[in-house]
Design a protein that fits this description.
By secondary structure, the protein is α+β, with helices and mostly antiparallel strands. Helices cover about 20% and strands about 45% of the residues. It has 2 helices and 8 strands. It has helices at about 25-35, 115-125, and strands at about 5-10, 15-20, 35-40, 45-50, 65-70, 75, 90-110, 130-135. The longest helix is centred in the C-terminal third of the chain and has 14 residues, at about 115-125.
C-alpha cells in the first residue's frame, strides 16, 4: 500500500502517496474503500480545496488531524469524536487553505503531479462539480 490515483472524468490520473507513518489507520481505511467515485465541488471558505461531504463513512479516530494543511494534501473527516462536523467529508487541497475543523491528513500528491491537481482545482472552480474516480495504484 503506497498510494492511490485520483482520475477526473476524461482526465489524466493524479498520483498520491499515503502518510503511512503519520496516519496509518486513515490510510488503510481509505485504501479499503477503493475504488470509489465521488462528486467533488469547490470549497467556499476553506481556500483552494475541492471536496465532498458525501464520502463513505470511515469509523476511525482522529490521527494527524489539523485544520492547517499544505498544498497537495488530502484530508478525511473521521467519525470519532462524535462532535466532529467534518465526518464523511473528504478534501483535496490544490493550493493554500485552512479547514473549518480538524480532519485527518493522510496523503499528499506526488510533486510532479501537482500541476495536474492545480488544473483540476481550476476546472472545479470555474466549471462546477466534477465526478472523480479514486483507485488503488
Amino acid at each position: 500500500m503506497q498510494g492511490f490515483l485520483m482520475i477526473p472524468s476524461g482526465g489524466t490520473g493524479i498520483r498520491f502517496r499515503y502518510y503511512t507513518a503519520e496516519a496509518p489507520i486513515t490510510s488503510e481505511a481509505f485504501e479499503a474503500l477503493l475504488p470509489v467515485v465521488l462528486k467533488l465541488r469547490h470549497a467556499r471558505v476553506s481556500g483552494q480545496e475541492i471536496w465532498t461531504n458525501e464520502a463513505p463513512p470511515l469509523d476511525i479516530i482522529q490521527e494527524n488531524a489539523s485544520v492547517l494543511t499544505e498544498p497537495g494534501e488530502v484530508v478525511y473527516g473521521p467519525a470519532q469524536p462524535l462532535r466532529n462536523p467534518t465526518a464523511n467529508c473528504m478534501g483535496v487541497y490544490y493550493g493554500a487553505g485552512r479547514g473549518l475543523d480538524a480532519c485527518n491528513i493522510f496523503a499528499r500528491v506526488w510533486e510532479e503531479d501537482m500541476p495536474l491537481l492545480q488544473a483540476l482545482g481550476e476546472v472545479v472552480w470555474l466549471q462546477g462539480e466534477q465526478w472523480v474516480r479514486f483507485e488503488k495504484m
